[in-house]
Amino acid sequence: MAGAGSSNYWEDLRKHARQLENELDLKLVSFSKLCTSYTSSRDGRRGDSSDTTPLLNNSSQDRMFDTMSVEIEQLLAKLTGVNDKMAEYTSTPGAASLNAALMHTLQRHRDILQDYTNEFHKTKGNFLAIREREDLLGSVRKDIETYKSGSGVNNRRTELFLKEHEHLRNSDRLMDDTISIAMATKENMTSQRGFLKSIQGKVNTLANRFPAINNLIQRVNLRKRRDSLILGGVIGICTILLLLYAFH
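^ thats the sequence. predicted structure below, dont judge the formating
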């Protein structure tokens, strides 16, 4: 009767252990999906300019993460307690004859507990690392946006000042080029004026030395004026005749 009671106790412990293991398995699957969805939603919102929705989604996921972490830790603690009770049972005198089989079963439950514990800590560590990294990147992006919004006006003013400065430099350069051209033109005209004065002086000298040449030049000029007057008169008469013929 005592052996039957001990056997029932062992079976109850095994059933409790399997129940906790099944609950842990479901919780860990959901926990892993939560962490994956958190990463995906973060990646999908990096290019989003809206800040309200991401904050609400992140806050909700963070609360779910904390809640599920507590629940899994409680289940792991309960499963650890059941495994400890199973270990105590294997050391009782009544279970000596089945000690090998009991130890094998106990070791299998301990391995399952260890696997679940490792999986939980790994998933939790990855989640915390991702959240810390994303929070840091979010803070950096926020600082950049704040800097851009605060320095936008200053940047526009600086750009306008630079454009105005460049315009003034171009104007100064154009004025310098104009002054240089004017100075060169003045020097050229001065040189030509001196050259013409020199020729005029030479002509006057020749005319003074040779009166005949001076008289010849004067006659030539008189003939040119006379020819000009005659040509002008002929052109005027022809024009009048053409007008009379045209209006006849």
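The mean pLDDT is 78.
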